[in-house]
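Appendix B: complex inputs.
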Amino acid sequence: MNRIEQLFKEKKDILNIYVTAGFPNLNDTIEIIQELANSGVDMVEIGMPFSDPLADGPTIQNSSHIAIKNGITLEIIFEQIEEIRKTVSVPIVLMGYYNQVLQYGTTAFFEKAKTVGVDGFIIPDLPLEIYQSDYKTVIQNLELDMIFLITPQTTDKRIRLIDAESSGFLYVVSSYATTGSKNDIEQNQLDYFERINELNLSNPKLIGFGISNQKTFNTACKNAEGAIIGSAFIKALENNNNTKTTVNEFVKSIL
Amino acid sequence: MNYKVNEQGFYGDFGGAFIPEMLYHNVNELKENYLQIIESDSFQEEFKDLLKEYVGRPTPLYFAKRLSKKYNTNIFLKREDLNHTGAHKINNTIGQILLAQRMNKKRIIAETGAGQHGVATATVCALMGLECLVYMGEVDIKRQAPNVARMKMLGAEVRSATSGSKTLKDATNEAIRDWIANPVDTYYLIGSVVGPHPYPDMVARFQSIISEEMKNQLQEKTGKDHPDKIIACVGGGSNAAGAFYHYLDNEKVELIAVEADGLGVETDKTAATTQVGTEGIIHGSKTLLMQNSEGQITEPHSISAGLDYPGVGPLHAHLFKTGRGTFIGATDKEALTAAYELTKLEGIIPALESAHALAALTKIDFNPNENVVINLSGRGDKDMETYIKKMDDE
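Resulting structure:
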């Protein structure tokens, strides 16, 4: 059982916070994640900045752009995670795009990630079918998790298929949107969460996209095992003066 | 060797649909329906009728006498520049708007580089009374002002893409994000043979009217239904796909694709994807693209906004890798020289994109008896500002 599976076994109302690696400054990521863990965050998602992040809204795009300018690379991200793992024990999920993994070399990427202490991956543009045929065995052998997204348009049949193929948790995209574009949760979204819950899936679920404050986080926790916050936290990091205070205050405002 | 798309949406190693789950439903809906719809009699009848009565097809296959004399061979120009709206792009937008209507979509979004696809999309939306939103890079909005004005006059909203290099690649990203946020009523009308399957195949089919007409016209003019060589410019590659389509399996026909070398392939100011690119994923398709070792997509350069794209359609990546296609490049300067040459010899001002295809004439050895078709994909009206500025240099 890896760290992700252990966490869902032990705890409810999981708070997962997304951080763009190398943002706002190249080496801030280490301190940010240490502080997130100290403040009571249950899991962290580290974004590997990509030049053309199709699934991300303006806030995360902009942070990725800045991180690339700061000189972030996959090697630096792996070094940072290695450093983070000396003090941090919460699960770490790497999020990025398939082209980055392809260029690094897929097997080498998964193995290196395992070595430095990563627990799972979110690669939104990796097709489920290609994961099944090419990577599932590698991921399982390394005891890592591959986390897939489901959206309001995903049919029940496909949700079951995705549930059967993925491990760790399911990333429930809350609405029709790229990251960071909504502020509240509406009735049709609640209906959608209910539809998913009625499927009695085998994986736990975290709700993401549009979770930005205590209210939306609490709603998410009523409808799933927890939530992922991304853009709202990246916004808090923009122009911050003191990383430690910013992180602590942000987490306090949610929990 | 098979050069058509397979059932999984691949051309050899290239193609597929590498898309986030948020797009799965829409892309799958299109994949499940496009062939059945576009192969139906009612669709074909309406499509062919609009191409004839509205677009002005068939376009002439013009024997360019003075150009032929200069290069000591027989050069025919496929006059896509004479289409309504001034380029081949409208062949595809007519096809896709009819498809969008049949799928009950109410809102049309598109990306554009030079603005030709944006104009062609705005045009068919006006024709059908549909809402139209065109994403265009901030840089391209500045360098293609006449087309921006045309789109607005046609009733489209032009939205500036301000991320990344602020050109075609970024306009495409923004259009895809719009589709993610508006999946139910919106149809994404892609302008080239790029993007996730089934777009590359669908756009190639709509553009294949170019080589379909060419076959009949060549038969009439030369007694053979095929040329010895076809030359077309390639950015994403839609006009080349259309010009090559019915000859893909006819190995007697040499297929010559001309990419934009920009300031030169040895510089970092180039858009010659097959020369400097490597395999990867761009806009949902596995293909050749310009990127660094980290997989970050790099910024291309070409004087021609329509060729200023860091990838190439998966069909072309396959033609390149298998050797079925011959890929050559033309620099900004060579394209300009070729544009002035065609204007003076034949009285035709070509688009800067098409000028790249013409520039290949100086780089190929021709046999005096062979027949060469150059796909003149668009007219030069939109490029007059650039041509006027550079006129003194010539």
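Residues 163 and 201 of chain A are 7 Å apart (CA to CA).
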